[in-house]
Amino acid sequence: MDRARLAEFLRSRREALQPEDVGLPRGQRRRTGGLRREEVAVLSDMSIDYYNRLEQKRGPHPSEQMLAALARGLRLSLEERDHLFQLGGYAVPQRGRRADHVNPGMMRIMDGLDGAAAQVVSHVGETLRQTRLAVALLGDDSVHTGLARSQHYRWFTDPAARAIFPVEDHAAQSRAVAAHLHAAYTRDGSGSQAAALAEALLARSPEFAELWRGHPVSGPYCAPKRLLHPQVGLLELHCQMLVDPDQSQSLVVYTATPGSESYDRLELLSVVGAATSR
Questions:
Q1: What integer is the mean pLDDT of 212-220?
Q2: Where are the alpha helices (DSSP H) in the chain?
Q3: End-to-end CA distance of the chain
Q4: Which of 95 and 143 is assigned the larger pLDDT?
Q5: Per CATH, which fold does 3-87 belong to?
Q6: Taking the model in full, what pTM does it have?
Q7: What pLDDT, on a 0 to 100 scale, did the predictor assign at position 80?
Q8: What is the C-alpha to C-alpha distance for residues 55 and 12, in angstroms, rounded to an integer?
């Protein structure tokens, strides 16, 4: 680990970022052009003291998880992320579709959606980042590990994954989930993460196996959904999706028609969810 160069690199990227780049107000008392250390710490989900020590060349040896968090907080490109890992004394993370790194363009858009129900999802249904309202609406997906990180896997193996959907919508949702995974498998081929998930589901879920044999094909990128939330009741939501150029991840935003009952319930959930998270 090269502490001095790591500190210099972190400082250079922090000073290059503007508050507007990460959805923060500039404020009238800001003297420096870049971000403050405490702002980077918050964006990276770590303590201010921990980040300060890294920039002061006296911090602990950061784990790969900490470096990945810093890469997200500083909105690093994949090339910059790889350099950060090398400075930290680690091998460069595997490139390709297994990477958990949210690209800077997606992050910039997410920064402006803090009050919306939005999340970044990988090509195999792994949630990479959620806004607070998305957590309140859909649950905290960061708690899952292994194959269960994939929403697709949970849908066919964990009954709790279906609780938020009305029972009469389960069949259509099953077809949509299977079709999405089938598209990823067709694109990436055998030996891919999509193939591993499909093999695991074929062994565990007769429902998935039957759908898979029919070669399901995706319909609309994100069809309207009905969600039965335990706190606010039934919500009828529209779904907008922005797909990354390499199709490795998508930004999904859930909205309701203004003036509708679902709109009022989503607004209520934004208040209830914020109070619950405190």
A1: 83
A2: 3-16, 37-43, 48-55, 64-73, 78-87, 104-111, 132-138, 151-157, 170-188, 193-204, 206-213, 261-277
A3: 37
A4: 143
A5: 434 Repressor (Amino-terminal Domain) (1.10.260)
A6: 0.70
A7: 87
A8: 10
